[in-house]
């Protein structure tokens, strides 16, 4: 049966930035979207049943993986509340650094700033032996191969067709290996190939453009077994929702950095690289969608709240800061309900 252009549904993409504990902001916004889906469409609605591809870098990849976990009926297993609980309850043990470690190892100058063992234990406890190919929908998770000096992108739709299949817990560990915070990691594919990886946020802290490029390759009608979705969709066929972990507005003094040297640049350079590439991706996608017709121009959403009183640090797990991150997310929702409700209605219309 031939599907008319009018009957076709948009391919819906969700892209989630990196940002450590600031991923709480992402979870708060996604929780509002999920609650509205439950109110307007189905009481048991979960985000994984509405997005056709979910992309993430670092902390965003962890959230993406939670969203894409399947239950026994190949429906989304977890509500986004699960992600919020993981950050609020486990965040302190994952990101906390003792006073003594801070004293002898400021900024992670002598070894990684945070112990990897707690993170790895939590990933094993949560994901167990779940494999990449078992994800509910296509994904795009970023990391960087330091030995071969190239991006390593994990996608689930291709994992079952190739040798590129991994345990989800290992992928999450790899994409979270932010230099000076966590050490690099070696992970092994299900076929025994070894990769030496660090955080994908080094080149794609905002992975929305990577998600777009990945979506262009995917035969969604075949993968999702529904011909209302386009195979190899163009930008005209997509809705992209890109969520950041808070706008970083910290400025750096010209005089202080003018003669800072290598040591003085350690902290600023990582911060600047991550925020600058996120802003560049937003600019590029804005320009792409501006070339479309009036209706389709509005199918790209970049959501990146002000941090308000929250710390920009990726590892500040003080209870007061976690509360400030939650408040930053809630404040954004209060000011942008109309836009968020538009997203909800589009997700309902384009669900299969």
From TrEMBL:
Keywords: Hydrolase, Lipid degradation, Lipid metabolism
Residues annotated as domain PNPLA: 14-212
UniProt keyword Hydrolase present: yes
InterPro entries in UniProt: Acyl_Trfase/lysoPLipase, PNPLA_dom
Motif (DGA/G): 199-201
Pfam assignment, any one: Patatin
Location of the active site: 58, 199
Motif GXSXG in this chain: 56-60
Gene3D superfamilies: Cytosolic phospholipase A2 catalytic domain
Family: Belongs to the patatin family.
Protein name (record): Patatin-like phospholipase family protein
């Amino acid at each position: 049966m031939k599907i008319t252009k009018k009957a076709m549904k948009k391919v819906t993409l969700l892209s989630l930035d990196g940002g450590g504990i600031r991923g709480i902001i992402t979870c708060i916004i996604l929780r509002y979207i999920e609650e509205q889906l439950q109110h307007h469409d189905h009481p048991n609605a979960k985000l994984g049943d509405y997005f056709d591809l979910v992309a993430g870098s670092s902390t965003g990849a962890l959230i993406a993986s939670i969203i894409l976990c399947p239950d026994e009926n190949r429906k989304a297993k977890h509500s986004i509340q699960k992600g919020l609980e993981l950050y609020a309850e486990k965040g302190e043990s994952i990101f906390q650094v003792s006073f003594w470690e801070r004293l002898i190892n400021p900024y992670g100058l002598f070894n990684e700033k945070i112990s990897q063992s707690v993170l790895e234990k939590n990933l094993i406890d949560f994901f167990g032996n779940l494999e990449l190919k078992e994800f509910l929908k296509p994904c795009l998770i970023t990391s960087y191969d330091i030995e071969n000096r190239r991006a390593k992108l994990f996608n689930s739709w291709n994992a079952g067709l190739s040798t590129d299949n991994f345990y989800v817990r290992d992928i999450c560990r790899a994409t979270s290996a932010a230099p000076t915070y966590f050490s690099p990691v070696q992970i092994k594919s299900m076929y025994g190939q070894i990769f030496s990886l660090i955080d994908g946020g080094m080149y794609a802290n905002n992975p929305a453009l990577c998600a777009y490029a990945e979506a262009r390759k995917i035969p969604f009608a075949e993968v999702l077994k529904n011909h209302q979705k386009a195979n190899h969709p163009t930008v005209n066929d997509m809705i992209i929702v890109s969520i950041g972990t808070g706008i970083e507005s910290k400025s750096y003094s010209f005089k202080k950095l003018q003669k800072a040297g290598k040591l003085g640049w350690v902290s600023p350079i990582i911060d600047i690289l991550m925020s600058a590439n996120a802003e560049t991706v937003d600019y590029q996608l804005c320009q792409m969608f501006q070339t479309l017709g009036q209706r389709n121009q509005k199918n790209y959403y970049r959501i990146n709240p002000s941090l308000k009183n929250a710390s920009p640090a990726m590892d500040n797990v003080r209870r007061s800061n976690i509360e400030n991150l939650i408040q930053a997310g809630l404040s954004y929702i209060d000011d942008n309900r109309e836009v968020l409700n538009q997203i909800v209605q589009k997700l309902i219309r384009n669900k299969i």
